[in-house]
């Protein structure tokens, strides 16, 4: 048992830290303003990427801080899930940083799908430009009309017709759909209603300029459009794509999703922990410097106890997430399902709690964009819903625990 | 001891309920869209009131459902704080309703100030049009640069100069400042730094078209601009108003604030409870009708227990608020300070909790404006900060409790 | 709506308060020691009532502070449930007081059963000596072998045989079974397995000296035997009682239980609230006088915030309980089931929370009998289990709420 | 980073597990009864050790499962703090087990003090018989009259007088003081009131048969005497011991305490986690097998969600404790103070929560000794108070966090 980070992780962590301090953090408040100036409208067709973003991406790439999430020696940095996790935490301290290092959701997950499951031609056509950071991608899974926490509810259909697949359905909360560089969506839908529960669904590649892809609107998450990415609602109206756009084959959707979700949840949770650390720093800074009733806020009421509780909650969430990452690397995501659900439950709640308390210290300033807090609250709350709400993960944990107890009992 | 509502309250409650069901609720989703169409921009100078609002106000007035908050037989309905409280709860079920009945914050509080403390001339000039629902008003208290939870921090100055007062300072979160009909602000500032702590501050009437009143921007609260009201940031730059604009006199600010806050907090809390009831209904409706894993959501996991806990929390908060209202009517707001702080602590937290859980059941739909939930979350979180954050009210409760214990001890 | 206590309640409250301050509180720590000396053994057959207790009972009776719980003008004080509630709270501040006023569980509940449902002969034989405080009684309901939270699980049988009923079964947590003056038990059992769910059970009077009543042991609740009452485990082994010992008749058990539980829960909850008030006073007293790190404990960490939260929790629980009492008086216990379940859930949890926090301030002293805290913890935890654990009451609340929602929906 | 246990730990864990399954678990309920028969009286002078205990200790010793806590190759097993931690967890599943392996508090802590700080003669005289499991020892620190959470409050004095030290004072909650084999106490007291805050106190060895050592009583912790150990209250009345009984020297008390507390807290917390695991198993077992309303309890209400939350809480507490152990081994207890306080805060609270919920499922059975639950509750609550209550550890965490933040800020 050893809690120290690997030499490789430690090295990348330091370089990442340096880059973030020198280039990203000083730019953040300007980015906020620029983004508001360029993209402060619900009219997503006008959205643009602030030019400085492309420059920073180029700089990060030149320094080898690029695609660190990808467990491939050549395309990424060859880091294991556990080795990458602390880097995701570091990036999570900034809402801008993940993109600069080409490590932002949903592109990371989509790249992983194409890397692990795409064929050569799909990889050449769609993966390479994503790895180069030149295009952006979308994952279309959640639907408005059914409880998507139960994926078997999914209603979008993918039907074979000659040399093509025809897609019909409505998806929403498809992140990245508003991005000016978004080119491709991975769409999940029903190919065979009568197949076994986990072989009914299929993933298919749909270029966004295909006729019948009708983007209806971008959805604000607690008022945040997250421009220039956006979370879109889209109708697939008799959308036709060639046969070869299918990933793996009909019925492979669930298997791919499973593979996609394991490391993806580690990334989400570690970024959430990084965000919580940042919120905690804001809590301390505000608490130590703002004066009321003749004292710094930290000396009033239960604020020091809050600080202690939040510190302990964050540290526990981090250890739990690193442990889940270690399990993914060692026994695979499927066998680590209890631990993965555990962190998906814990980390976003810790973030929400820390942000909520920090907002209390900031008062009015916490409610508007003068602080990153409303954005962080939207992240926390979104994470508690996306990829299964808290309750679904509690159910998974309990089910697995019960099964393990029954196993022990019959030993 | 008797928990039944007075005949007067019961009668108004029924008429209010009828009006809301017949006219307001059916209009709500259209209002939402119309408001977004007219006012879905941060550029507040373009904001307009949807015409249907004026019609509804007229209809409410004709039916005697007007200014119910005002404890005056002629100008209002002569209801005590306790009698009005259940009506405020009913209105609180809708974000639109309070305005229709001319019972919305901050106008109610401002009207109370003018009613209780304004002189005849101030009442004629400013109160009457507010009572008629023809103008809107603003209360400027919170400042960005100091912890406004400790009101003695306030930095805006009001200095006598000849026949005028000169006001300098910066205020924010001044609700209503973006409203096209906003005409008047009650501004609180420092008149005598050396006076006793509670006699340093003064309230003064500042017409919004006075030179030097520079509105800088509207602030979104968790992304909600609350158009066409808005929460503004404003600079008072050598703003000059005539001597007679002062309310009561120099140094009376705290005394007036105290009087304003008592009933105002009852209103806020009862509306929060009404909002919590509405969110709970959404929770039940969604839980009873949405299917996942072959069951309505309510049958899954701990959802029935959540329902029970929320029901109990809301009922307790309501009783506590009604009790505080009864105390205000019987012993006055000053002596009821512990109970008033208690409800200010409890009610918004209950609302936040209910909204948070309801959002979990709604999933993605909860994050955007397809449901009233993001708006209700912003209300809850704002209420936990405005008029003193939770921590300040906990401190007040503890201080009062300790004082009472010491009193009993020395009996 | 009126939150002031009735004149009758106010008068009794003052007399009760005087009696408790003058006679009970000064005796309490001596009682604790005397009780430990006389009864500090699990061997319940040796238990005795400290002689001072009988004296105090006599004094209370002479002052008319006797059987206040009974809603009968002659036998009690003719107080409604709501009017008695504040007196129960006052008594609840002392673990000894309820007995002194002949208002202790389970005798109150048993007297209510006999008063409302007993026939003349049963009342003469069993009720009168209880009203006189000369005998004690037991209620035998919970069974060790089945989940008694679901009363239909009950396995004890009551079978007719000639002019007698024959009882067989095992009961436990039968409070009062160890008392030297215990004479009579009301036993609930199964008379007709095939009847409708709520007509299977029957209540019957069993004198404790009947052959076949085999008391096995007294059970400590978190180490507390509650001598000289005790909580017993008892076997009914072919116990024969005459036909006339049945209450109302076969199958009436549930109906009687329902009537018994409504006011009984008000009493339990109000006593719990009184106990919580006492614990809160201990919290404040300890916090204000004990010094650590150069400060009274109350000035350290979050202790003032804890104080505030506990004050608010207690006040809300009290109002909720008074409201439930008012409903019992006005619409009956059956229709007030949601509110009764609500207080059964809330009040013991509030007590447990206040006791838990107070123990933290008392440190080591809190764990042993140098403070009343371990006794109060046992009360709280017992109340969270007896008469249905928290989860059962949450289920009742949710079920009722859902039914009411469906009713409103179909209006 | 590696989360797998060392080969050494894995080997011991398996052997320990086998021993516990084969010899300790089957004996536990008999032990409970035997202990009640022999020691079910507050009269501690009659207490005896059940003979089977000595046999089991001998068997454990023969199998090399002895003194595993001691980081010494010869006297113990040469395990690091981190390597021993999982063994402590395993032992913690039983209230009896730690003693069988000579790994029970307070003897472990006392042996560590003598091992690290005792001189040769002290080790020969007092350490050896403890290592052999033939005597038992006591640690006298907490005092009834002052807040012992602030150790500088301590009032017991140790004064030099010729060739002797004279001890005067009152201690309580001295665990093991009732044990028939208890021979020696390590007493902490004040030697120099005017010295620097951390050099005022001294530890000294006091044989329990020294004149003036007056044991007044054993204290029940929530009704548990923990016989035959007991928690004693003792007066030191002009107790005289020879000069050489001092440990290290005058003023070294704090330094020794610091060294004693680091690993000791790991042990306590890991045992608490083991106890929580056992309680969780009881929760699952009861939940899966007990029927109410036609269903196993686990299927009712929020019980599966509770199960999930408890699983996640335990796993996080374990990882946090192992991390703190790793820090103690790598940077020393002093530098790991924040993490040590964190686990002291977290682990006992997790245990209390799990036990509380499990009690709810067990109903009446949970309140008496038919289950281990009251004992586990007393352990949890005691641990939240002993060695500093929760609030003290929150203060330590916040203080350290703030200091670290200031350090980073001035980089």
From TrEMBL, chains A, B, C, D:
<dbReference type="GO" id="GO:0003995">
    <property type="term" value="F:acyl-CoA dehydrogenase activity"/>
</dbReference>
<dbReference type="InterPro" id="IPR050741">
    <property type="entry name" value="Acyl-CoA_dehydrogenase"/>
</dbReference>
<dbReference type="Pfam" id="PF02771">
    <property type="entry name" value="Acyl-CoA_dh_N"/>
</dbReference>
<dbReference type="InterPro" id="IPR036250">
    <property type="entry name" value="AcylCo_DH-like_C"/>
</dbReference>
<comment type="similarity">
    <text>Belongs to the acyl-CoA dehydrogenase family.</text>
</comment>
<dbReference type="InterPro" id="IPR013786">
    <property type="entry name" value="AcylCoA_DH/ox_N"/>
</dbReference>
<dbReference type="GO" id="GO:0033539">
    <property type="term" value="P:fatty acid beta-oxidation using acyl-CoA dehydrogenase"/>
</dbReference>
<dbReference type="Pfam" id="PF00441">
    <property type="entry name" value="Acyl-CoA_dh_1"/>
</dbReference>
<keyword id="KW-0274">FAD</keyword>
<dbReference type="InterPro" id="IPR046373">
    <property type="entry name" value="Acyl-CoA_Oxase/DH_mid-dom_sf"/>
</dbReference>
<feature type="domain" description="Acyl-CoA dehydrogenase/oxidase C-terminal">
    <location>
        <begin position="251"/>
        <end position="400"/>
    </location>
</feature>
<dbReference type="GO" id="GO:0005737">
    <property type="term" value="C:cytoplasm"/>
</dbReference>
<dbReference type="InterPro" id="IPR037069">
    <property type="entry name" value="AcylCoA_DH/ox_N_sf"/>
</dbReference>
<dbReference type="InterPro" id="IPR006091">
    <property type="entry name" value="Acyl-CoA_Oxase/DH_mid-dom"/>
</dbReference>
<dbReference type="Pfam" id="PF02770">
    <property type="entry name" value="Acyl-CoA_dh_M"/>
</dbReference>
<keyword id="KW-0285">Flavoprotein</keyword>
<dbReference type="GO" id="GO:0050660">
    <property type="term" value="F:flavin adenine dinucleotide binding"/>
</dbReference>
<protein>
    <recommendedName>
        <fullName>Acyl-CoA dehydrogenase</fullName>
    </recommendedName>
</protein>
<feature type="domain" description="Acyl-CoA oxidase/dehydrogenase middle">
    <location>
        <begin position="139"/>
        <end position="239"/>
    </location>
</feature>
<dbReference type="InterPro" id="IPR009100">
    <property type="entry name" value="AcylCoA_DH/oxidase_NM_dom_sf"/>
</dbReference>
<keyword id="KW-0560">Oxidoreductase</keyword>
<feature type="domain" description="Acyl-CoA dehydrogenase/oxidase N-terminal">
    <location>
        <begin position="44"/>
        <end position="134"/>
    </location>
</feature>
<comment type="subunit">
    <text>Homodimer.</text>
</comment>
<dbReference type="InterPro" id="IPR009075">
    <property type="entry name" value="AcylCo_DH/oxidase_C"/>
</dbReference>
């Amino acid at each position: 048992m050893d809690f120290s980070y690997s030499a490789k992780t430690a090295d990348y962590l330091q370089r990442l830290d340096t880059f973030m301090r020198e280039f990203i953090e000083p730019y953040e408040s300007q980015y906020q303003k620029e983004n508001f100036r360029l993209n402060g409208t619900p009219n997503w067709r006008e959205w643009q990427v602030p030019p400085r973003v492309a420059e920073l991406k180029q700089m990060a790439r030149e320094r080898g801080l690029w695609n660190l999430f990808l467990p491939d020696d050549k395309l990424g940095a060859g880091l294991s899930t556990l080795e990458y996790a602390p880097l995701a935490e570091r990036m999570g301290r900034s809402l801008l940083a993940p993109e600069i290092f080409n490590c932002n959701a949903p592109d990371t997950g989509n790249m992983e799908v194409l890397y692990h499951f795409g064929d050569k031609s799909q990889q050449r056509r769609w993966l390479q430009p994503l790895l180069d950071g030149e295009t952006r991608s979308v994952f279309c899974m959640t639907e408005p009309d059914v409880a998507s926490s139960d994926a078997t509810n999914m209603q979008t259909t993918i039907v074979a017709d000659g040399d093509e697949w025809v897609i019909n359905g409505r998806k929403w909360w498809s992140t990245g759909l508003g991005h000016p560089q978004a080119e491709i969506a991975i769409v999940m839908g029903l190919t065979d209603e009568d197949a076994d529960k986990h072989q009914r669904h299929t993933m298919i590649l749909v270029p966004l300029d295909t006729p019948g892809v009708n983007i209806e609107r971008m959805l604000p998450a607690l008022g945040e459009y997250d421009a220039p990415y956006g979370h879109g609602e889209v109708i697939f109206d008799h959308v036709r794509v060639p046969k070869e756009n299918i990933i793996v084959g009909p019925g492979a959707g669930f298997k791919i999703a499973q593979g996609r979700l394991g490391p993806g949840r580690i990334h989400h949770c570690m970024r959430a922990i990084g965000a919580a650390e940042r919120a905690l720093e804001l809590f301390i800074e505000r608490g130590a410097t703002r004066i009321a009733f003749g004292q710094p806020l930290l000396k009033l009421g239960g604020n020091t106890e809050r600080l202690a509780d939040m510190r302990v909650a964050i540290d526990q969430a981090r250890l739990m997430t690193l442990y889940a990452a270690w399990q993914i690397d060692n026994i695979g995501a499927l066998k680590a399902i209890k631990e993965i659900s555990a962190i998906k439950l814990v980390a976003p709640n810790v973030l929400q709690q820390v942000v909520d308390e920090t907002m209390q210290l900031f008062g009015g300033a916490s409610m508007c964009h003068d602080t990153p807090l409303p954005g962080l609250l939207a992240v926390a709350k979104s994470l508690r819903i996306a990829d299964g709400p808290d309750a679904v993960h509690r159910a998974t944990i309990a089910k697995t625990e019960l099964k393990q107890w029954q196993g022990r009992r019959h030993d």
